[in-house]
Amino acid sequence: MAELFSKQAKQYAETRPDYPKELFKFIASKTPDHDLAWDVGTGNGQAAQSLAMIYKKVIATDTSPKQLELAKKLPNIDYKQTPPTMSTTELEQKVTPKSTVDLITVATALHWFDLPNFYNQVKWALKKPNGVIAAWCYTMARVNHSVDAVLDQFFSVDAKPYWNPLVIRLVEQEYREIEFPFEALDGAQNTGPFEFVSERVMDLEEFLTLIRSWSAYEMAKGKGVELLGNDVVEKFKTAWGDGGNENKKVVKFPLFLRIGKVGNVQI
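Above: the chain sequence. Below: its structure as tokens.
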């Protein structure tokens, strides 16, 4: 995963949607304390920066140094490059002591993780019993009927051979089927997914740059295939309408959150 997103780190930072304030307000309302949050797979720190407005300290980790280079530095965010898997000894040395974290977040990355290993780390790091884990993904961007039709065709036909089928299915299913062995929060019937929407105003070139940040685009490029050839770009131009890069549109990203608490698990 790290190699795929490192290669287009700049495009990722420039065009991936910011996450709505309502999302972080909702998540923060579920943690009794706001001392320490750990953002795993932080990328360029999008989620970490919002968490830093609420939590006294944020540890933000990623396996990609290129992504971390592009992260906005704030005094209460500690960015760290970590290996994909860590022993409890490494976890304590590189991240945090046992049972000290109020909140662990994973923004649009959980589907890439070795879940059994990661969940052991979560259960080790979170405060017991009310430490919270929150993980979310967003599904296909929505613009309007014309653009959506071209994008859906591109996603399901042109890019299909280059998606990781196991990963993309978890996202398409809105994290409903992803393994998530945590307790429902007090007053909730389940761990979600709970729905939010992220929005970003984009011109056509920014929208195409968003596509270039896809893992499938980078995978195809590595095989010598240019998915956004002239014919495909023309289809997007026609659907986008007159004005091209002067014609900005609101792009909506449906977002799906799984959230739960660790409970009294012993590990």
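Confidence is low (pLDDT under 50) at residues 2-7.
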